[in-house]
Amino acid sequence: MIKRYGVGGSKGTGEQALPFSKAVAADGWLYVSGQTPMIDGEIIDGGIIAQSKLAIQNCLDIMAEAGYGKEDIVHMKVFLTDARYFQSFNKVFKEFFHEHPPARVCCVADLVVDCMVEVDITCFNQKFK
Description:
A hairpin with a 2-residue loop joins strand 2 and strand 3. The protein contains 2 helices and 8 strands; from the N terminus they run βββββαβαββ. The protein has helices at about 50-65, 85-95; strands at about 1-5, 25, 30-35, 40, 40-45, 75-80, 105-110, 115-125. The protein has about 130 residues and is an alpha+beta fold. The longest helix has 19 residues, at about 50-65. About 25% of the residues lie in helices and about 30% in strands.
């Protein structure tokens, strides 16, 4: 069975409706779409620390809605707009995941919204299988 979260209810910059699910669950797996440091369709002000915290927290909020916790995170993808943000992002990452660090990839990329970081997460929990 496949369950979709946040279909049609997500808003991007400028209150634009986003054409994808916030997350999709299938056979114990949860795939959380890339999250940016956005509140109510607007990117927050602040540097890489504040933006990283919010991007990760946005993922965790979606996971919680689906019944998953930090201990269920298997893999994270991180997109930074500047390699110089790497160490600062790692500090935030350690704050969130010191007990259950997931596997991770981090790369530098241009993002389609004007922010410094985007994060997506893949989770697994046997109870949803």
